[in-house]
Every structure is written in C-alpha cells, then in structure tokens.
Design goal:
Number of helices of chain A: 10
CATH class of one domain in chain B: Mainly Alpha
CATH topology of one domain in chain B: Ferritin
Distance between the termini of chain B: 56 Å
CATH topology of chain A: Ferritin
Strand content of chain A: under 5%
Oligomer: heterodimer
CATH class of chain A: Mainly Alpha
CATH superfamily of chain A: Ferritin, core subunit, four-helix bundle
Largest sheet of chain B: none
CATH architecture of chain A: Up-down Bundle
Number of helices of chain B: 10
Order of helices and strands of chain A: HHHHHHHHHH
Number of strands of chain A: 0
Number of domains of chain A: 1
Largest interface: A-B, 77 and 77 residues
Radius of gyration of chain B: 19 Å
C-alpha cells in the first residue's frame, strides 16, 4: 500500500490547527498558575518539613523500584545513580508541586533530545525512512517540546526554577541505547529506536499518571492531565509499529494500515492494560533541581 | 497473498507472546494497586460524608455546557451529522431523563438498561456515577457493533477490528466495575444505566452506521468523550485515591482513540494536549 503524501500532509495540517486550539486552551490554566505563583512567593518559601517528607517518600519509592527492577533500567546501574542523586545535597528544596513539575520537565528534555537523535538516522528521518515513521517522530518530538514548555511554565508560575536538563537517572540508559543503535543495521536499528522511544514514552506516561495524586495545585493537575493521555497514545502507536517491525511487516506501517491483512491479535496490541500502570514511573522528585 | 489474508510474517503466536509479559505485569502489579486505591477511595468518601452536597460540587465543576455542544457539533460532521447536535441540544437541563430503554433498543443492547439513578449523589460519588454510566454507553456501543458485525450488517469485518472491539469493550467493562465498586462500597447502588444525555446521540449515529469505518468513527467519538470526561473529573475529584483511579483510566480511553484514528487513516495523536471540551459534566448525572 502506498501512502498518500498529500492526504498525510493535509491531516498533519489539520492536526496542527487542532493542536493550536489545544494550546490556546492550555494557556488559561497556565495564566492562573502565574497568579498563584505570585501569591505563593508573596506568602513566603515552601514548607521545608513538607519537602523532607516528600523526599523521604520518594526514597521509599525508589527502594520499591529497585526491588522489582528487571528491565533495561536495572541493567545499567541506573538505580544506584538515582540513589546517589536523591542523596546529594543538591536534592530539591522546593515545594512538592515544583519538584514534580521539574521531574516532568527533565523527562521531556530527554524525550526531545532522543527523538532529535533518532531523526538524524537515515532510516528514521532521512531519505530512506518510512514516511509515516518519519512524520510520527517529527510530530512527536514537537509535541514533547510543547509538553516541556508547558511543564516549565507551570514550574515558574509556582515560583520554581525552570528545569532544562534531562533526567539524570535516564541519561546513561539513553546513551547506551544510542550507542547500540548507531552500530546496528537499519532494520535492527529501527527496532532499537522504537524500543527506546517506547521505554521513554512509558516512563513519561506512568510518571504523570502517578504524579496526579501527588499534585496539590489545581492548574498543575490540569496541565499534567492534559499531557499524560498523549504520552499513552504515543505508546499505543509505538507498540503497533513495534509489532509490525518484529513481524517483518515494516512496509505495512502506513496510514491507514492494511487492517484487513493483519492477524486478529494486532487489534489489541496497542493497549495492553485496562488500567494504566505506574510500576515504571520515575520517582516524583528524581528530576527536581 | 490475498488482501484478506493475515500478514504472513506476523503470526498470532508472536503477537500474543509480545503481550503476555505485559498481561502478567498488569495482573501482578496493576490490579492489586487498583484495588487498594478503590478501597482507599471508598474510605475517603465515607469520611467526607455528604457535607459538601450541592453548591460546592457545582463550584468545582469547570465545565461549559455550551462549549461541549459547540464542539460536539463539530464532531458530528464525521459521525452523525445534525443528529448529534439535535440530541445534545434537546438534552439540556431536563435531558437527564432521556429514555435509556429507547437507546437500548436502538443499540440493540438490553444489558445497558438498568438503574442507579435517583440516589441523590454528590461530590466524588456523582463523578463516579457519571463515569459508570458513560462506561455503560461505551459497552453498549461496542456490543451493538459486534452484534451488527456478526449479523453481517457491516460488510467484511477484518479479524483485527473484531479483536479491537472485543478488547476495548472488555476494558470498558473493567472500568465500569471499578467505578461501581466505589459506589457499592459507599452503600450506593451500582449504575447499570447508560449515560442518558449522550446515549441518544450514540443511537442516532449508530442508526447510520453501515460499515466498519462508520462504526470506528462512532467509537472514536465515544472514546474521546470518555477520556475528556475523566480528564475533567481529575479536577473535580477530592480524594487522592479517587484521582489515582481516574488517572489510571483516562489514558486508556485515549489509547483506544489513537488506535481508532490510526485505523481510520487519521493522524493518531492529533494534539499535544488533550482537552475537556467534550467532557460530560458530573452535574448532568441524574442524581
């Protein structure tokens, strides 16, 4: 099946229009947050007892993560890195919401840079790339950049500092994966890229789902809630793409896919859980400044 | 290979193996965590009592009914045309008494008709009841779609589409059970009726469905409404455990929507931010 480039471009244009509408809708809570941030700053600093309790809670959570680690993250000694980071003097001293938002920003920074790296590969962003994959990677990178801007705005609105650095715990994981990708053949490399993107998207979605019950500011909740479903959608599409690639059906990654040709099980591969898990969520203060 | 033969490289066994690990994690870790959240939420609701009935819940609600109707009218272009807008418009404040029995006959789903209304719910429980009724509408939509497909009314239905519908419906059933578990733990009746406001809209749209594409368009509308409703609910729910529950369901509805968009040839993740313009307000639930 050949992809209709004109139709695809039209859809992307429509998507951009809708996206612009959504961004306008996101501005309202962000504007509210600016006001609230000013009020918070006027009322004084964040409660240090609250911060200590929050940090303690995340250390306990970290221990829990370490216990069940068995994935890519555990294999790279990342748990130890998280422990070192949380134990460092630079550990966050700001309010809970700010820490949560800074962590979210740090994940988005990493996501943007990872997609940017992937788009530098000829079989993802170059002339030999599948057009649907290339469009997905480009659009998803842009969406993560929007998420980063939203989380950063939310952070500064609450009186916190804008997080511009990647989540330190996940950087070694991404670096290791990128090294493997650059050495791989295009077909193997494409699978590794999808696996890495999938891991990052899942971490993002699970972290934001988990963060929802930690946030106290109404607008911080709204911003996070408006983003977590999008990351989950990225996961769905990546799961579908991964299944096609693993099945040697990369040519069937088209918009729309050749549904009639797909086996029955393909119908549910993109949404494996009735309830979104949080077992791989990053500790909420992991990326805090 | 004919167009209807499954892709030879991609076997059922391989795909099922890919999802087996995820299923195991889901059952070992996610579901016990959910049960804890539901139990905790029930305790919270008992603790809150009914003290904040009425004005407070209205105040928390950040929903603009006019915005919902306007946006729904836009969606209607791809689904049910003027029928959607007409159904929504006619359902304004008194519309909560829209006949569920009529909707059930149109969708062909007797199971969707039931009770749970008139319990004088407020606060988190009102959000829960709205969510349960919306899940019932989702279940009824998929049930009706599967029934129509089985009867050969939708033409050739690819196996992957059947699996999608069955799995999405099963997940909506899980969601409905989760919401209703909170109600019954609080001593209330489970909500077994469809959403009385949106169901006539679904029925109007479903009556015009003649093929898989039409059914997918309708399901997409239902999934987006569900996802946006729970997103709105996250701003309304007071209990942290309740927020955990709603937060674990909202992304799943949007995942269903992404796959439906993909199958329909629409860009599957159209927005960087999901909105609430299609959200169903808890205040619409007939307490």
């Amino acid at each position: 099946m050949e992809i209709d480039e004109t139709a695809l471009n039209g859809l992307i244009e429509q998507s951009r229009d809708t996206h612009a509408d959504a961004q306008r809708a996101a501005r309202e809570p962000l504007a509210d947050m600016v006001d609230l941030g000013r009020q918070t700053r006027a009322a004084g600093a964040a409660d240090p007892d609250e911060n200590r309790a929050f940090a303690g809670e995340n250390r306990r959570r970290l221990a829990s993560v370490a216990k069940r680690a068995g994935s890519l993250l555990a294999a790279t000694g990342v748990i130890a890195a998280i422990a070192d980071y949380i134990g460092s003097p630079a550990f966050a001293a700001s309010g809970t919401d700010v820490q949560v938002l800074q962590t979210a920003s740090s994940i988005e920074v990493l996501a943007v840079s990872t997609y940017k790296t992937a788009l530098g590969l000829p079989y993802i962003g170059g002339s030999t790339a599948n057009p649907v994959v290339k469009t997905f990677a480009t659009t998803t990178m842009s969406q993560h950049a929007d998420h980063l801007a939203a989380f950063q705005s939310a952070t500064t609105a609450l009186g916190g500092s804008k997080q511009t650095k990647p989540d330190p715990a996940f950087v070694p994981v991404v670096d290791k994966a990128v090294t493997a990708i650059t050495k791989a053949s295009p077909s193997a490399g494409a699978l590794l890229v999808v696996a890495l993107a999938l891991e990052l998207e899942n971490i993002a979605a699970e972290t934001y789902v988990s963060n929802m019950s930690l946030l106290s500011d109404a607008n911080a909740k709204k911003v996070t809630a408006s983003i977590m479903g999008v990351e989950a959608q990225h996961v769905s599409i990546l799961l579908a793409v991964q299944a096609l690639l693993k099945g040697g059906a990369g040519a069937d990654i088209t918009l729309p896919p050749p549904v009639a040709k797909l086996p029955a099980a393909a119908g549910s591969v993109g949404f494996p859980n009735a309830f979104y898990p949080t077992t791989n969520a990053a500790p909420a203060s992991q990326g805090a400044m | 290979m004919s167009a209807n033969e499954p892709v030879s490289h991609l076997s059922e066994a391989e795909l099922r193996a890919m999802t087996a690990d995820l299923d195991a994690i889901h059952h070992d870790l996610t579901l016990p965590a959910l049960k804890d959240s539901l139990a905790e939420w029930s305790e919270d609701i008992r603790a809150y009592g009914d003290a904040d009935r009425g004005a407070a819940s209205e105040q928390r609600l950040k929903f603009d009914r006019r915005r919902f109707l306007t946006t729904a009218a836009g969606v209607a272009g791809g689904v049910a045309g003027a029928g959607l807008l007409a159904a929504c418009t006619s359902s304004s404040s008194s519309s909560t008494s829209a006949p569920a029995s009529a909707s059930a006959s149109a969708t062909g789903s007797a199971a969707a008709v039931g009770g749970g209304e008139g319990q004088m719910l407020s606060g988190d429980l009102q959000v829960v009841a709205m969510a349960a009724s919306l899940e019932n509408s989702g279940i009824a939509t998929y049930q009706a779609g599967i029934k129509a497909a089985t009867a050969g009314k939708l033409g050739t239905v690819p196996p992957a589409v059947v699996t999608f519908a069955q799995t999405a419906m099963a997940q909506h059933e899980d969601h409905q059970k989760a919401w209703n578990a909170v109600l019954t733990a609080a001593g209330k009746k489970p909500v077994t009726a469809v959403d009385p406001v949106i169901q006539p809209t679904i029925n109007t749209a479903f009556a015009k469905v003649t093929n898989v594409t039409g059914l997918a368009e309708l399901a997409l509308m239902v999934e987006n409404i569900a996802g946006e409703t729970y997103q709105n609910g996250l701003s309304v729910i007071k209990s942290a455990a309740g927020i955990k529950t709603a937060a674990s369901i909202q992304p799943v509805e949007f995942q269903h929507a992404a796959i439906l968009s993909f199958v329909l040839g629409k860009y599957p993740v159209p927005n960087a931010f999901t909105g609430v313009s299609l959200a169903r307000p808890p205040s619409d639930y007939h307490t």
